[in-house]
Write a structure and sequence with these properties.
The protein is mainly alpha-helical. Mean pLDDT is 79; it is low at 220-229. It is 67% helix and 8% strand. It has 2 domains: 55-290, no CATH class; 308-372, 2-Layer Sandwich (GMP Synthetase, Chain A, domain 3), CATH 3.30.300. The strands form 2 sheets. It has a 3-stranded mixed beta sheet with strand order 3-4-5, with helices on one face. It has a two-stranded parallel sheet with strand order 1-2. The chain has 13 helices and 5 strands.
Length: 377
């Protein structure tokens, strides 16, 4: 027993201190063991913090990448041919192969470095190399399209004709990755992956294909957009310019953050490319909003199939759904094949009301109905 309440409180305080001290010691011991185990697994911690190239070494590397050399144009030729043939054949695997060998990323990253360092000679050399490379790719894809005589545009071509903000995000991330990879010797082998992600050559090939087709293009019915005339070369060139501007700007920021330059030296050029990035994002925003509207309507339509199965006859086949967000109200056009009498005007009206309510916006639904009869002997 304690003589006073003060003695009792003092004893309790001492016990708490002892208990806390033991807990802290135990925690420190556990952390020490964890650090030792981590070090034994990783090895030398200095390997985790690889130093970037020096300015002179990196600049020499980028000067070589910006050269309008024979190997640059030689590699670009087969890359353009493979990409053009893959686009015409609608083969994504073939297009990926073209991206791996395409050297277009080199002059763009060199241009980005020249921009923040105010290296006007390197900037001019990279611009010349890039411009002539762009012309070569467009010319080769134009000639291949003319030689084959094809007029069909499939999904791979159409996918590069309507860029949006998602493509801008991909290009910005690729610019960061590409510039960072060039400053580190151990990860330079990631550049082919960056080239695949940003896809510089295929959009230029679509420009050449679009110029060759002109107004005589025929969209594959499987991927058609009813009653719309696509100018595929405009959209694909917008995609290339999006990639180019985003890579130059974000690559410049990466070089700047690694102290290859300073803000005072590079703020004017960075501001110019930032304004270009903002300007080019405006048409991309419109396309992105249309993309979001399409996605919401298609998702709601899919949910309605399960909520109201009585409206969906198993014999009814929906071949295509075309959504036009620019119409007022938004137009949803269905191409449907069904037995005679399977769909009534009332069914279409109910679908329009339910879909508009679920999408929280006014909709106008049209159905192009192709009826058929089953004849038997």
């Amino acid at each position: 027993m304690y003589n006073t309440e003060q003695e009792a409180n003092s004893y309790e305080h001492d016990c708490c201190q002892i208990y806390t001290s033991k807990s802290v010691c135990k925690l420190k011991s556990m952390l020490r063991k964890l650090i030792q185990t981590t070090k034994s697994i990783i090895g030398d911690p200095d390997l985790l913090l690889e130093s970037p190239f020096g300015s002179e070494e990196l600049e020499q590397l980028l000067k070589v990448g910006a050269l309008p050399s024979f190997r640059y144009y030689f590699l670009l030729g087969p890359s353009a041919a493979i990409a053009a043939l893959g686009l015409i054949a609608n083969s994504s695997a073939t297009i990926i192969g073209a991206m791996i060998i395409a050297p277009l990323m080199n002059p763009i990253v060199s241009l980005s470095y020249a921009m923040i360092k105010s290296k006007y000679k390197l900037f001019g050399r990279a611009t010349l190399t890039l411009s002539t490379g762009v012309f070569e790719v467009i010319l080769i894809s134009f000639l291949i399209t003319q030689l084959l005589g094809t007029r069909i545009t499939g999904s791979e071509i159409l996918a590069r004709s309507n860029p949006n903000l998602i493509d801008l995000g991909v290009a910005m991330a690729s610019g960061v990755a590409g510039a960072f990879a060039l400053t580190r010797r151990s990860i330079s082998n990631t550049l082919p992956g960056v080239a695949i992600a940003v896809a510089l050559v295929p959009p230029l090939c679509v420009v050449g294909i679009g110029l060759a087709l002109g107004s005589g293009q025929i969209t594959d019915p499987q991927y058609s957009i009813a009653n719309e005339v696509l100018v595929i070369e405009n959209g694909s060139f917008l995609l290339f310019m999006t990639n180019f501007i985003a890579i130059v700007f974000c690559g410049g920021l990466v070089f700047l953050c690694q102290r290859y330059s300073n803000w005072k030296q590079s703020y004017i050029s960075l501001t110019i490319f930032l304004l270009l990035l903002i300007a080019i994002s405006l048409p991309l925003r419109s396309s992105f909003e249309n993309f979001v509207v399409r996605s919401i309507i298609l998702q709601n339509l899919d949910e309605l199939r399960y909520e109201n199965p009585q409206l969906y006859n198993k014999n009814v086949q929906v071949r295509q759904i075309h959504i036009y967000p620019n119409k007022n109200p938004t137009l949803v056009l269905f191409e449907v094949v069904a037995p005679s009498g399977a769909i009534s005007a009332t069914d279409i009206e109910i679908l329009e009301q339910d879909l508009a309510l679920k999408s929280n916006q006014p909709l106008d639904i049209e159905v192009q109905l192709f009826e058929f009869k089953t004849l038997r002997n």
